[in-house]
Amino acid sequence: MWIRLSEIPPQGVVVSTQTPLKQLGLVQEEWWADGPLRVQLLVTRDERLIMVDGDVGATLQFHCSRCLKECSYPMQVEVHIVLAPEGEEASESRSQLHAADLEQLYYRDDGVETNEVVREQLLLAIPMRVVCRPECRGLCPSCGRDLNEGACGCRESPAAPWVEQLKRWRPK
């Protein structure tokens, strides 16, 4: 949803919707949504700044990083963003990057596209690896059997020679 700075009243604009991932351009093979994203945002302004606050919720489906079974991952992402006009970057030399510069976001064309904000926040919150449960034992590296269902009977393969050297190594 496109919101212009001039159209934001003093009390702000409430964005409350359910959005399919496809509408945000999020079609992934690694994960998918079990239903639409629940979006609840309040867009306010202060002079030339746009503030976006609220939360995004979804139940995503993943394949467990250890045993490869499908698992659900409920997410609730809090959104707190301040956007400045694109042309108002810091007047200091652009060769110096400060910590505050990493957190500053910008808008252009006198408004903000809330779908872009939601998409970015969701992507930042998705973990790199998801496991079905903390005690998941994964798959046997030799035969591929799911070790959660019981031992596979494979002998442990001997460690590579360099692993044994690392075990004996002690820093001076």
Describe this structure in words.
With 172 residues, the protein is of the alpha+beta class. It has one domain. It is built from 3 helices and 8 strands; from the N terminus they run ββββββαββαα. The strands form 2 sheets. Strands 2, 3, 4, 5, 6 and 7 form a 6-stranded mixed beta sheet that branches. Strands 1-8 form a two-stranded antiparallel sheet. A hairpin with a 2-residue loop joins strand 4 (37-46) and strand 5. The longest helix is centred in the C-terminal third of the chain and has 12 residues, at 114-125. It starts with a strand and ends with a helix. The mean pLDDT is 82.
Summarize the structure.
The protein has 172 residues and is of the alpha+beta class.
Provide key terms for this protein.
172 residues, 3 helices, elongated, alpha+beta, six-stranded mixed β-sheet, 8 strands
What's the average pLDDT?
Answer: 82
Structure classification: alpha+beta
Largest sheet: 6 strands, mixed
- Rg over C-alpha atoms, rounded to the nearest angstrom: 23 Å
Uncertain segments of ≥5 residues (pLDDT<50)? none
Number of strands: 8
Backbone shape: elongated
Q: Strand fraction band?
A: 25-35%
Portion of residues within helices: 10-25%
Quaternary class: single chain
Question: Helix tally?
Answer: 3
Number of domains: 1
The H-and-E topology, N to C, reads as: EEEEEEHEEHH
How far from one another are the termini? 60 Å
